[in-house]
Design brief:
20 helices; single chain; 4 domains; 613 residues; 7-stranded mixed sheet; 31% helix; Nucleotidyltransferase, domain 5
Amino acid sequence: MAKKEKIPDNNQLYEQLKGLRDKLAPKESFENYNKSEKVNFKKNPIQKTATGYIHNARPKFLGNNKKQKYIAKEKINYYSDQPPIVTRIYLEDKKRPLINSKKMVPQDQQEIKIEVSKFPKPPKKYSWTKKGNTTSYKFDFSLGDKFQPSNFSDKEDREMTIGMDFGTSSTKITIRDIQDSRSFAIPFSNNQDIQAFLLPTKIFFNKDKFSFNSTGKECSNLKIKAITSEVDDFDIFTVISYMALVIRHARTHFFKKYDKNFKGQRFLWRLNVGIPARTVQKFEIKDRYTRISRAAFICSHGLNDFVSLAEAESAFKISDTKTITQEFNKLPEQIKISFDNNSVNFIEDGVGLYPEIMAQIHGYVHSNEWNQQSNPHIMMIDVGAGTLDLSLCGVRQDEDFELNYYPLACLVEGLGVSNLVKHRESFILEAANDLNDEDQSTILETLSCLDNINYGEINVPSLFEEMMIDFEFTDGQTKKYIDKKFISKLQSAIWTHTVLEASKGSKETDTTWKSLPVFLCGGGSRMSFYNDVFVAYEKVTNAKAQFSIRHVPQPSDLYDVEAGTDYDRLSVAYGLGFWNLGNFIANFENPKMNVDGDDSPGWSNNFVSKDMT
């Protein structure tokens, strides 16, 4: 490995070089050289060079010693009085390869100019961008004012939980009967596939009303608006209206199908909503999200197929703790019964926010597959339409058998499916810079079909040639490395900034990282492009950590759906259906770890530090 040292001044450099040259060239000692030409090694005279300020005698000396090479470690500030920092590399043999040479650019290497050599003429619209399913969504709000069974009685209480996976591209919802330990998946259409349970996260605004009717202004990116640091009132009311209509439909569906099964009972309702693990640590956003969820629960009472702007605004105004205490008695009777006519119950138990990783792995940590001694760390990789959401937690069961989750690393990066498409699109546009205006317009017209796509409703090809059909480049090898930068970012996110950060400081004898349970979810996780990156970390043998990708089957207590291999799409909503998922003990806002090293599965071949092995 290259030997590095900081050279503080030229006098010390002289002493070091003198001993070095005697060792490397004993036949021509430095004493003989010094006799032939007297040199005064003081700080002056000095000259400005590419590596900073250097004594006038040094270039001549280095010219006689061909086995030394000086490479600037960083750009020198010529206005500084400090001596330059250089990296000294000793080469015993010119043919011997350098360790970590991948970080050095050969002097004879030139940047290859890539240009588009072929593109669709005339412009075409790619078939894969069209909606992949023909789901016709049907909503029923006819029992939207019903919170209690028809044969209501307060002699027996029954806890009922609504588990709402409020996703970026689609929303999933379940209702769970806590006493009978049964969960029911709520469909939004009559389709027989998984798409029936995935409702696009968008709503329409027309004439001061929000509805699922495709008229008026389309409002999307609702989840991002709900958890962003800066959000306006209209966005808040939009999210409230969307969640309210989803809950209204879910209760109507449940009562129409199962109302007759419940006699002489009172339902005590709870709404559990998923939230990114990193957002849980931000009090302002979490408090706002709680208020939005409370307001949505209140607005879900109604028979209409819309929520007015005034309704959403009114519900949000009374959703804070102080106001709801004062205004609780003004709520509809069905809602008050659901909380035993007590505002404290509504405030404390009405809404629960849980990190999505807790819901995702809830079934696993309650199964016989999980052992907290051998698998105390669990990782979730959620490949969404726009983002890659990574959560790595430690899980412990206390003496009361309650689960405690300790966040070890949480990261959200813009590496989802839509950004992979944009990455490839940008590559094409950059390679088309030198084409004439007509050709550029033709390319732009073809790529315009990539705008405004709902990635939750289509199947995106993994291979470049299947995604960007009929595009070729002047360099025939381009397609092999077109995604290199994107893959590098993926590897850095899931390895350096997540696994390495979480395992930092663990003992070499700690084997719990060697079989790290990893759960994949999100629509993008089905793409071979992402799977190939993740699976490679299962084959790591000479590193501290090793992935063990798990696929949990659909639980036997989830009814009204046969999800099969698509169960992970419903796993968060299923987990949120439980009344209490445990405790999330957050280590607030741990900074990212700045780690140098190779993020690829074979990175350990280039050893950097003991924390990486």
